[in-house]
Design goal:
Length: 337
């Protein structure tokens, strides 16, 4: 795919004198290696597709009257995936597609950029990861202690569980809103007749050890938990097949439970592999850039954003493939007769 036409206009102004030779924040790094393509074109297109797929997932679960905690957590994951993709889209389309802006950002847009482009998508993505861990643990408990846990695994409790995970995840990441700030900088326009108020990006001093610890807690520990509980779930599901055949009324019901166990395992596996690879790349890039937006990490972040969005709809595909009831309900949304 050939890149869209690139605007080679120079910045609209020159920075005023600033300490340490720092220049006002601009989008130069996003355009130097075509990273803007992922933000302004590829990302929004994928996000539209992801949003449609996740809305269909939610609609199918609601219409099919799936009332277990497993389905409630799946709905919560779908919602967070939608928010992860949608939040940066208006900003990205405006600046990378419509205006094709390579100039300095005004101070009011700098805060919007940081919140919509970096902070909130990361927060919601990590909430989705935490919910996937919760989904895996919930399914393992349901398989391991079916008689004791079943009465607690209701739609209502699944919703309450998702809200708790959401709240804890936000609290765990609240400090990210304070890591970066902006201060106003007067920028003289090229004709020297006026000035605009740009911004300088100020980064909180965070040691490598602190950053690695945060990455380990928020990204790698959830992946480790996913691996552990996915393995345990598959083993336990295999162990209780005989009991299920004796306790359920039909072989179809038994097969349906086994397919749901496998579906949750596949969802957890895909999320784990994606997160381990991308988190490792982000960690390596951070250690070399120290929170600065460089040409390489602008491109890497754009690619990872597109990858996250591409992987997101897999939950719908897995459920359609493995659950006959879900598949019939999904078809019923489009085929009335």
């Amino acid at each position: 795919m050939s890149p869209p036409h690139k605007n080679h206009s120079r910045p609209a102004g020159r920075p005023s004198h600033m300490p340490n030779g720092t220049v006002p924040f601009n989008f130069k790094n996003y355009f130097e290696n075509e990273a803007y393509i992922y933000y302004g074109y590829v990302g929004p297109i994928i996000t539209v597709f992801v949003t449609i797929m996740n809305v269909l997932l939610i609609a199918t679960i609601i219409k099919g009257k799936f009332r277990t905690s497993t389905h409630a957590v799946m709905v919560a994951i779908a919602i967070t995936d939608i928010l992860t993709g949608i939040i940066p889209v208006p900003f990205n389309v405006l600046f990378f597609s419509v205006e094709h802006l390579e100039n300095f950002l005004k101070i009011e847009w700098c805060y919007i950029f940081e919140i919509c482009q970096i902070i909130l998508p990361t927060v919601f993505h990590l909430i989705s990861l935490s919910l996937t861990v919760g989904l895996s643990i919930e399914r393992f408990c349901l398989v391991s202690f079916p008689l004791k846990v079943k009465r607690f695994c209701t739609m209502r409790n699944g919703i309450l569980f998702s809200i708790c995970v959401f709240a804890i995840s936000v609290c765990a990441q609240i400090d990210t809103f304070l890591d970066v700030s902006y201060e106003p900088v007067e920028i003289i326009t090229r004709d020297r007749k006026s000035t605009i108020t740009g911004c300088r990006r100020l980064i909180k001093d965070i040691s490598d050890e602190e950053f690695i610890t945060r990455m380990f807690i928020l990204r790698f520990i959830p992946c480790i938990l996913l691996i552990i509980f996915t393995i345990l779930l598959l083993r336990k599901s295999s162990d209780i097949q005989k009991w299920r055949k004796q306790s359920t009324s039909t072989s179809t019901a038994t097969a349906s439970l086994e397919r749901m166990d496998f579906a949750v395992s596949v969802i957890a596996f895909v999320a784990c592999v994606t997160e381990l690879v991308t988190a490792s790349l982000l960690l390596r890039e951070h250690l070399s850039s120290q929170y600065r937006i460089t040409t390489s990490n602008a491109l890497l972040s754009g690619i990872i954003y597109a990858v996250y969005m591409t992987v997101s709809p897999i939950n719908l595909a897995i459920l359609c493939f493995l659950s006959e009831k879900f598949r019939k309900t999904f078809k019923g949304i489009f085929c009335r007769h």
